[in-house]
Specification:
Blueprint lengths: L4 E8 L8 H12 L3 E9 L14 E8 L6 H4 L6 H9 L3 H20 L5 H15 L4 H6 L1
Helix pairs in contact: 4-5
Length: 145
């Protein structure tokens, strides 16, 4: 077969790291559908060292997204960047950055949560600003200060 489809399976707590009905169905799908290449986006509680199932040749990629891992996401997911470069950039953050950049964002978040009047657009901006801040600053270092 010349043309194969690329298929992304988003799996929560199941295949290929845990057993059950959805896992059995997913395993059969990946092994029986020959005109597709599968990428598995596996959302789990923790980072798993090895799949429970033997993956077929149609499974081209497994991306793990552990929700409760103490590891940084960049340690587990390849974003096309070297992990040590990400950490080096984040570790440069100092107390001045935390006080001048993060604290005002965090105060807006807390005020918004406890306000009698909430505006969704305000939360949107706060969440985006926090995400943007943590692209270049270390979460643990920030929250410890």
């Amino acid at each position: 077969m010349k043309n194969k489809y690329d298929v992304l399976l988003i799996l929560e707590g199941t295949y290929p790291f845990n057993g059950g009905g959805v896992s059995t169905w997913s395993h059969m799908l990946c092994n029986e559908v020959k005109n597709a290449n599968f990428s598995l986006y596996s959302i789990n509680a923790n980072y798993e060292l090895k799949p429970k199932y033997e993956l077929g040749e149609n499974v081209k990629d497994v991306i793990q997204v552990p929700l409760w891992s103490p590891l940084e996401p960049q340690e587990m997911v390849d974003y096309g960047k070297k992990f040590y470069k990400i950490i080096k950039t984040k570790e440069r953050a100092d107390e001045k950055d935390i006080k001048e950049k993060f604290i005002p964002i965090f105060e807006k978040l807390i005020k918004g949560i406890y306000s009698d009047v909430r505006v969704a657009a305000d939360f949107d901006n706060v969440i985006y600003n926090m995400w943007s801040y943590f692209q270049t600053h270390d979460y643990k270092k920030t929250m410890l200060n």
